[in-house]
Amino acid sequence: GAVVSQHPSWVICKSGTSVKIECRSLDFQATTMFWYRQFPKQSLMLMATSNEGSKATYEQGVEKDKFLINHASLTLSTLTVTSAHPEDSSFYICSAPASGGTTLHFGNGTRLTVT
Amino acid sequence: AQSVTQLGSHVSVSEGALVLLRCNYSSSVPPYLFWYVQYPNKGLQLLLKYTSAATLVKGINGFEAEFKKSETSFHLTKPSAHMSDAAEYFCAVSGSTGANSKLTFGKGITLSVRP
What percent of chain B has pLDDT over 70? Predict the structure, then answer.
């Protein structure tokens, strides 16, 4: 079945550095990718929607210059957390609908810890 | 606009007992409703979805949910809990079934299963 591969699964970085998270759609083309953020014991909050070949759409309150999203191909979307700070520590999850399908396929998430 | 309310944050049942996880929704348009399960440090897996067809929806792993418009509810049930059901469960709502539609998630419920 359709799979979204997300890497890395966890990352620790120092404050002020940037971190890139990749999500790849395997065996299907993802024209759209949703990026979520999840705090401990809380729900998923949609951060942005990326579309292949165009600019991402950010949800209200999400800093687009801090969370850079690139969707350069039909199988790859990336989220870069720039100048990370401890408050950016969170669990980031991507998801994509398979072409023609109505179901979202989720990556396994990335645990980001900023020290 | 859509929203989901999952009352309580934790449900504990004995193995073999009935599982009941509650979800109430609010939607300005006919809703499409989903239940997802999340295991620790993993992405989300779709359990089942309601898309305006049958009001009783059967999903994977023996789970089912019933859409009740009069009660604006979509509670998740399983007749007999198994230890492997211990996880986080999220109810979500969308305004359409299109795969590119945004999902609004509830805050989630942690299910514990006692031996």
Answer: 95
Integer Rg of chain A from CA: 13
Minimal CA separation from A102 to chain B, in Å: 4
Closest of B97, B95, B101, B104 to residue B36, by C-alpha: B104
* Whole-number Å distance between alpha carbons of A19 and A48: 17
Looking at the complex, report in whole angstroms how far the Cα of residue A107 sits from the nearest Cα belonging to chain B. 5
- Looking at this protein, which amino acid is placed at residue A12? I
Q: What is the pLDDT of residues A13-54, one digit of tens each?
A: 999 999 999 999 998 888 889 999 998 878 889 999 998 888
pLDDT mean over A47-71: 92
Q: Is A74 helix (H, G, I), strand (E, B) or coil?
A: coil
Query: Which DSSP letter does residue A81 get?
Result: E
CB contact (8 A) between residue B44 and residue A44: yes
Would you call A25 an interface residue with chain B, using a CB distance cutoff of 8 Å? no
Separation CA A6–CA A34 (nearest Å): 12
Q: Tell me how far apart the alpha carbons of residues A110 and A94 are, in angstroms, rounded to a whole number.
A: 9
Q: Any chain B CB within 8 A of the CB of A98?
A: yes
Q: Is B97 on the interface with A (CB under 8 A)?
A: yes
Judge whether B112 and B9 are in contact, CB under 8 Å: no
